[in-house]
Description:
Layout: H1 3-23, E1 34-39, E2 45-46, E3 49-57, E4 67-72, E5 77-79, E6 85-91, E7 98-107, E8 116-122, E9 134-141, H2 155-170, E10 178-182, E11 186-188, E12 196-199, E13 210-212, H3 216-230, E14 237-244, E15 264-266, E16 271-273, H4 274-280, E17 289-294, E18 324-328, E19 338-339, E20 343-344, H5 345-356, H6 385-398, E21 411-414
Parallel strand pairs: 2-8, 9-10, 9-14, 10-13, 14-17, 17-18
Antiparallel strand pairs: 1-3, 3-6, 4-5, 4-7, 7-8, 11-12, 15-16, 18-21, 19-20
Helix pairs in contact: 5-6
Amino acid sequence: MDKKAIAFILFVLVTLPLFSGCLEENGNGNEIPMVDINYPSNGITVSGLVKIHGVASDPDGDKTLERVEVMIDDDEWNVAEGTANWSFDWVTYPVKDGPLNICVRVWDGIDYSDFDEITVIVSNPETAESDSHKWAVFVAAANYPADNETKLGNGGLNLAEDMAAYFIENYDYSTSNVFILFDDGWIRDDNGYGGRVETLEQRSHEYDITYGGATRENVEMIIHHVIEASNSFIDSEVFIWFFGHGYGNENDEFTGGKILESSAIFLWDEMISDRELGELLYDLRSEKACVIVDACFSGGFADKVIYNFPTFFLMRSDIPNSGRIVISGCSKFRTGYASTTRGPLFSMIWFDGIRTGDADGFKSGFLDAGKPPSFGFNKDEKVTVEEAFYYASYMLRTDRNLDDYKKMEPQINDQYPGRGTLRSKKGMLLGD
């Protein structure tokens, strides 16, 4: 054999393993995708509702990414939302306090990435941090989906945070018992109309309360948690507020298409009807509870139609109950309105009436329309939930600056402190 042939054979024998390693990477020529956890960071302490999120990429192009999977402490793999920018909501309440591992991987349709893994310390707060047994849940879904032209901006979040801060500062609500669920848990630029910027938890905010996305799963988990915790105390106080798009026919100016349909409000990923919310709150035993649903065609949540007339008994939601006040921002037949920066109109006025004290002394008028105190009577320098409702109803009907919105017709179903025509007329003072 000549020297050239020998040299060629030796070259092939030496270089073939190198080439074969490149040509047969993972045995199929596919490049392995990559994934990273951006939050939480390794070693930090977490509690409540935690939004795990990060980024993923593929050398073959990010469009090949099919799913990101998250595993908590050697449990099953869960599919996260998104791929190149992904997130996963993790509720820590069922988990024992202590260190836990979070493991993430991404799949490109051919290969899984290497794991990215961190360890966090779960430290859930006690059920109540003081002698006050009070819980508040704020839920707002405003800016979905990407092509929706009727986005509601970040006003619902702004109002929820204002109310939460007021409850903490004036009503002795514990920060560990206050929950704000907004959109998918992300803040978007351009007042909610743009792309994701950061999670609610990453933002700088005044109080260390629990944030998360307004998904069906999160709403059910948080409300179940609040029911279980509040049922342990005979003096518990529960406040629940929903804001978002209501379900109905805006082109039907008379009934909104809701005569024989339940009221419903959109969460981030699906709707929840008045009956479904009633079932969710069925086990709530608190004798001091206020539920406000501020959305179009929402009167059914209060078991009301319009002008405070009751819903047909077969259509009732069963949310109203002894010890509860249930309020809707408009009637079952009417649309509601909201500011994209300040939040829903009825709730804004209702809260302003409480915060400023302007609602002091307001009471029910004809068809519960609301009327101001006469010559200063009925004022006691305290504002009840009902007084704030009648104040908001009165302002919507009489304020010339609100002429375009006077047809909203907010509804109330007041069964506090008891049910029935002979019940006490004592109003509900939050935080009292």
